Amino acid sequence: MNLPDFGVGTFRLQGRTVIDSVRNALELGYRAIDTAQIYANEAEVGQAIVASGVPRDELFITTKIWVDKYAQNKLIPSLKDSLAKLHIDRVDLTLIHWPAPCNGVSLEEYMAALAEAKAQGLTRQIGVSNFNIALTRQAIEVVGKEAIATNQIELSPYLQNSNLVEFLQSQGIRVTSYMTLAYGKVLKDPVIGEIARKHQATSAQVVLAWALCLGYAVIPSSTKRENLASNLLARNLRLDNEDMVRIAALERNGREVSPDGLAPAWD
């Protein structure tokens, strides 16, 4: 199964909240679920998956390796632990969560370990997250561009990352957008609001449709069933060229996430 266009994210969701969110998403028709070791919710995500009764081969499950597990002797054991928590025998996609240039493990070591996890059948596909152009080039040198299913990066109308996106697309590496709604900030933008009224849509639907139109995969999260259902309708919203031009003009390099010690030098 290729990387789905639309999934549900679980960042910052814990305990009963994440169980309910994933359960609602699966009931509504979502089939891609994005989690990570550092989210500390893999067990709850797994619980919701098992309880849903959705066949495993209909699901696309992504997790991410945390920076303290990048060493060659730690990455695969940590992924096996994630699989146990998720109640599955392999994930569909495993990502390096942050490049973490100062954590003492070389990119060559952790990308080789990630490729070995794939070779062992622990993950169907591998990829990266929060990599800039230079680091993506280095990852390509280790595993080949065909092996990198996606680079999951922060993208929104306020942070369009055009140089990185152009590079990734030139290499055939799929772009996954996270923080697409910029913590909700873009939902208050008057231009987005005007486009939403024009199409009788919500502002969130407009922003998600914008990302989908550009070819990105999106993984919005919500604790509310009605918002999960509403977000899915973005797949049916067709923005016109004028809409896309107006949204493109909203760029302001409005990055929301850039943790010290983990983030690269951004393009």
From TrEMBL:
Q: Which Gene3D superfamilies match?
A: NADP-dependent oxidoreductase domain
Q: Which domain of life is it from?
A: Bacteria
Which CDD domains would you find in this protein's record?
A: AKR_AKR3F2
List the SUPFAM superfamilies hit by this protein, alphabetically: NAD(P)-linked oxidoreductase (SSF51430)
One BP annotation, GO: methylglyoxal catabolic process
Pfam families reported for this sequence: Aldo_ket_red (PF00248)
| Molecular functions per Gene Ontology | methylglyoxal reductase (NADPH) (acetol producing) activity
Q: Which reaction does it catalyse?
A: hydroxyacetone + NADP(+) = methylglyoxal + NADPH + H(+)
Q: Which residues bind substrate?
A: 97
Q: Which residues cross the membrane?
A: none
- Site (Lowers pKa of active site Tyr) at 64
User: Does the record carry NADP as a key word?
Assistant: yes
Question: Is Membrane given among the entry's keywords?
Answer: no
Xref: InterPro entries:
AKR (IPR020471), Aldo/ket_reductase_CS (IPR018170), NAD(P)_OxRdtase_dom_sf (IPR036812), NADP_OxRdtase_dom (IPR023210)
Q: Which PANTHER family match?
A: 2,5-DIKETO-D-GLUCONIC ACID REDUCTASE, NADP-DEPENDENT OXIDOREDUCTASE DOMAIN-CONTAINING PROTEIN
Q: Which family does this protein fall into?
A: Belongs to the aldo/keto reductase family.
- Can you name this protein? 2,5-diketo-D-gluconate reductase B
Biological source species: Azotobacter beijerinckii
